[in-house]
Each structure stands twice: as C-alpha cells, then as structure tokens.
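Following up on my earlier thread - several people asked me to post the actual chain instead of describing it. Fair enough. Here it is, all 149 residues.
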Amino acid sequence: AEKAAKEEAEAKAAAEKAAKEKAEAKAAEEAKQAAEKGAKDAAEAKAKAADEKVEAKKVTSSDVSYSRHLEAQSKLLERMKEVTQMRQQPKDISEENRLKEKYAVLPLEERAFQILFDLGMVEQTPDPDDPEYDDFLDDDFAPENGEWE
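Reply from S.P.:
Thanks for posting it. Predicted structure:
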C-alpha cells in the first residue's frame, strides 16, 4: 500500500510538474505574441505618424499654393479695374496729358503694345519659371503637371 501511495504521489507530482511547465510555456508564448503585437503596433504607429506628416506637408503645400492663387486672383481683379478705368471716356485733360507723356517716350512697337495692354486687348503670358507664377490651375489644363491617382 505504501508503494502504491508513493507511486500515486510521484504521478501526482509529475502531473503537477507537467502542468506547471505547460502553463509556463503558454505564458512564454503569450508574452512572445504580446511582444510581437507590440512591435507590430509600434511599427504601424510609426508608419501612421509618417503618413500624417506627409499629409500635413501636402496640406501646407496646398495651403501655400491656394494662398498664392488667391493673391493672383486679387491681382487679376486689380488689373480688371485698371482696364475698366483706362477704357472710360472722355478723360479729363490732365489724364490725357499724363498718358501722352507716358506713351511718347516709348518706341513705336512698345507704345502700340502698351496701349493695347492698358486697354486690356492683349495680355502678357506669365513665365512659369517666375517665383510669382501662380500654378494653382495648371493641373486643370495640363494633367501631366499634377499628381493624378
């Protein structure tokens, strides 16, 4: 009977030891999975932060572009007011004398262009290399200049 009790106690101890090892292995596996998940979450968070930074740059870039566009529109409205004023007739004597002096100093071809420009009949083509150039609407006319997805 003693031998059977001893064998039973040894079997019970072996079972407890096996259960303990199994629990430790399971805990180690869970810890490993948690670490991997944490690393994956950290990588995803880092990628998301990078994407947000790029998006913020795009927004800033488009905000700058849009503000330049608004400035260009403001200049265009000012130009339209000037043309409207130049087209008004009759002009007073002092205004006519000022225009005569302005145009008299110009060579014939430049004078003709300046008169047509002042009346809004011709426009100067903007230089795309000019830092003041407004490229806000370029994508509407030339898709190869934009980011089309």
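The helical segments are 2-87, 93-104, 108-118, 138-141. That should answer part of your original question.
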